[in-house]
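To: structure desk
From: M.T.
Subject: fold request, one chain
Message: Could you run this one when you get a chance? Sequence is below, nothing fancy, just the single chain.
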Amino acid sequence: MAKLLRLENLGLFLLSLSLFSQLPFSWWLYPVLFLAPDLGMLGYLAGPRFGASAYNFTHHLGIAALLYAIGLVTGLPLLCLGGVIMLGHSGMDRVLGFGLKYPDSFQHTHLGWIGSGKGAGASAE
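Reply: Done. Structure tokens follow.
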């Protein structure tokens, strides 16, 4: 199942590249902005519960799709760009095994535990 999920998320990353190619931006912008969703990790400065919420907001595939759709409907390519970057970043994160966070620990994700922390290798509930 893990291989299938990684393949699916690789597809989302590739989709983001395809959608980006339709936007009126230079290609250098994609890698420059690629790590921008990780700014959500700054929420952890306010504690693990707020940090998990902030991180999950900036890595949520539904929000990425919503941003892109609103950008299409309103004719605002910057919103499309935000959605595409979130989609590509989140897809690649999940290919690498980084998932949405539970509020108890940064290492506890919906894909299981990351790193060598508590419960490493165990699958998430």
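Reply (cont.): Residues 2-21 form the longest helix (20 residues). Let me know if you need anything else for the meeting.
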